[in-house]
Amino acid sequence: IQNQVRTGLARMERVVRERMTTQDVEAITPQTLINIRPVVASIKEFFGTSQLSQFMDQNNPLSGLTHKRRLSALGPGGLSRERAGFEVRDVHPSHYGRMCPIETPEGPNIGLIGSLASYGRVNAFGFIETPYRKVVDGRVTDEVDYVTADEE
């Protein structure tokens, strides 16, 4: 969505620059210069046509929650069902505490669509973190640290 907003803002900038050159300097106001339609159109285009945008499953509250926690390796910049081999679809040790190894669809999407683990969370950089309790002098403390796979 960031790319779509960037594209919309670039289009809006171009329109503003064109209007600044054609209109009289004394008559220019922000309302006459700025038109937000290019930004709105690019955002609507993303939600209407992107592979990453889906209608939410709202059969019941639990299915809606499961849909929101779904992870996908498919789509733009990702894999395709045809190119994905067994290595990509298989459970990896770095999935521990981050992705549920059981909840994956059957059929061609097996291993490509997954779910966030119960206590997993996505940090500000988009990496999945899992909680670990700190061990000090061989004793488990109540302090919880969220760790990404590369920090493990």
Walk me through this protein's architecture.
This protein has helices at residues 2-22, 30-33, 37-49, 61-68, 86-89; strands spanning 70-72, 113-115, 121-122, 128-136, 139-147. The strands form two sheets. It has a three-stranded antiparallel beta sheet with strand order 3-4-5, with no helix packed on it. The chain has a two-stranded antiparallel ribbon with strand order 1-2. The longest helix is centred in the N-terminal third of the chain and has 21 residues, at 2-22. 5% of the residues are buried. The protein is an alpha+beta fold and 152 residues long. The model has no long low-confidence stretch (mean pLDDT 88). The protein folds into two domains: 2-49, no CATH class; 70-147, no CATH class.
In what order do the strands lie side by side in the largest sheet?
Answer: 3-4-5
Q: What is the N-to-C succession of helices and strands?
A: HHHHEHEEEE
Radius of gyration: 23 Å
Query: Given the C-alpha coordinates, what overall shape results?
Result: elongated
Residue share in β-strands: 15-25%
Low-confidence stretches: none
Query: What structural class results from the helix and strand content?
Result: alpha+beta
- Tell me which oligomeric state these chains represent: single chain
Helix content: 25-40%
> What value does the average pLDDT take?
88
How many helix segments?
5
The main β sheet shows up as: 3 strands, antiparallel
The total strand number stands at: 5
Number of discrete domains: 2
Head-to-tail CA distance between termini: 30 Å
What's the gist of this structure?
This protein is α+β, with helices and mostly antiparallel strands and 152 residues long.
